[in-house]
Amino acid sequence: MMKSAIISAALNKVSVISFHIFLEVMERQTHFESILKELYYPRDKLQVTLHFYSVLKAVPERYHEAMIYIKKRCAFVRLFMPDQYNDKLHSACFGDIPYVPPKGVNSGVLLMNLTKMRSYGWENKVLEIFNNYSKIADLFGDQKIINILLHFERDLLKLIPCQYNYVHIFCDHGQYCKEAESDPNGIEILHGAGSQYITERFQLYEVFRMYRDFTGSHEDVYEQVMVPLRRYYENPRANSRCFGSLNRLLFKSYYENFR
């Protein structure tokens, strides 16, 4: 994630980028620091900073015991960011529980206005939902809690177009993200949900692998990443419709800028 974000920042001539990283074991911060040290990017033009936080410190102490049963703790922490980090950060299947119609909100990509969330009393609201609904549903994850809250408070939510949270199901059964078709850049943010970035046989794994193994500068992205990916997705495969969509939508802007 850090590598792709830094590459994108360099390509778009961004001068400053900050990563806010939540860790269960704070000693792990040396791992991220070493990754940053090994990355090649124009350090004279792009300033990169890392900020580390403890997951447990973000969650109120009375809920630490519940954290034991939460699988995606770092996602759960997002529910408490407005109140816990007010000076440090600036910037499915739902069963019988309420959700945002028609199909619920995916929390994979969130742009959070922490100032407005604090004024709304966000933390008290999510804790109230957790207390009220955890007895009848598995709420050990942030997505269900967010859907319940926003089901009743729709004015708090502004949906972003699907090309900013493009998941594999959009092309598994046909092309369900029409906005990506009309966007001149095609897919803006690719979401690796459903183990797409860790299972080699899945459609999006090759995108992850290419960026993971990429060792050049941002100026080499086209030749070392985009061209090989285009060849890969041009090959006829069992899921040819999905591969065709990915080939067309992943590289729209690159075709325009580099051809």
From TrEMBL:
One of its GO terms (cellular component) is membrane. It is a single-pass type II membrane protein. One of its GO terms (molecular function) is UDP-xylosyltransferase activity. GO terms for biological process: protein O-linked glycosylation via N-acetyl-galactosamine. The keyword Transferase applies. Gene3D superfamilies: Spore Coat Polysaccharide Biosynthesis Protein SpsA, Chain A. The keyword Glycosyltransferase applies. Its main location: membrane. It is found in: Membrane. Keywords: Glycosyltransferase, Signal-anchor, Transferase, Transmembrane. Belongs to the glycosyltransferase 8 family. This is Glucoside xylosyltransferase 2. It comes from Orchesella cincta.
